[in-house]
Amino acid sequence: MSVRRFHRPAAARGEVVIVLAVVAVVGMLGVTGCRKAQDTAAESQSTENGRNLGAGFRISQNNLKQLGMAVNDCAAANNNRLPPVSGSFNGVTATVFVHLMPYMEQDDLYRDVKGGKDLKPWKVLHAPLDETAKHSEPTTSYCANGSTEGVARCIWTAQPSSMPACFYTKGSSNCVLFFERDARTNGTYNSTTCYADGSKIDLPKAFSDKGVQASLGDGTVKTFKPSQAAAFKWGCNAQSTEAPPKDW
């Protein structure tokens, strides 16, 4: 009795090899696709973070610009008189930020304060990148370049005053009125009253690596990098008679 042997055709074996090859290629494509998806997601997140950073920076810049413009509008409406850094002005006892409310389209909040109501949170004085800001409280992300202790080098004083002399001696574009407070919770300028003691003004830690933004007397906003600490101090010193630093 003969035994038949069935041999698998060479073509069939080739098909198996082709199938395995196809599976391997598909697997590789799947891994590559996953990696590309992950890279795309990471890139998208980075872009979104960048947009948020840029948007937050611009919002804070606009807030400071409004503050600077409000100072000039306030002076024009009050015979060139400016409010104190903290004290009484036009029948209201509060900080300079409250006194400038009517000139920043915050009339309703100002009327509430003048009527004896509790101060409500104000969006215009919150910097989006300020992680220490309590948006449920009427605090601000900014500091006024002033002192209640009679430090003459400050712009804002303890009493109502005329337009700062430095606007004419240094030029209003060289005078720092307000600036972003320190980003640290225990920072030098991170108090609820939020004004600086001009005798020890140092450049605060910035909310972002873009630098610290400051409102100048002409209504413009300037950004200071950590390397510009000396320029920042010069801009804050209302009595400085020195020439502007090279990096101003």
Question: Describe it for me?
Answer:
It contains 5 helices and 8 strands, in the order αβββααββαβββα. With 248 residues, it is an alpha+beta fold. It has one domain (62-236). The chain has helices spanning 10-77, 96-99, 107-114, 166-171, 229-236, and strands at 81-82, 86-89, 92-95, 142-144, 161-162, 176-180, 212-216, 221-224. The termini are far apart. The strands form 3 sheets. It has a 4-stranded antiparallel beta sheet with strand order 4-6-7-8, sandwiched between helices.
In short:
This protein is of the alpha+beta class and 248 residues long. It has helices spanning 10-77, 96-99, 107-114, 166-171, 229-236; strands at 81-82, 86-89, 92-95, 142-144, 161-162, 176-180, 212-216, 221-224. A four-stranded antiparallel β-sheet has the order 4-6-7-8, sandwiched between helices. A two-stranded antiparallel sheet has the order 1-5.
Q: Topology, please?
A:
Blueprint: H1 10-77, E1 81-82, E2 86-89, E3 92-95, H2 96-99, H3 107-114, E4 142-144, E5 161-162, H4 166-171, E6 176-180, E7 212-216, E8 221-224, H5 229-236
Antiparallel strand pairs: 1-5, 2-3, 4-6, 6-7, 7-8
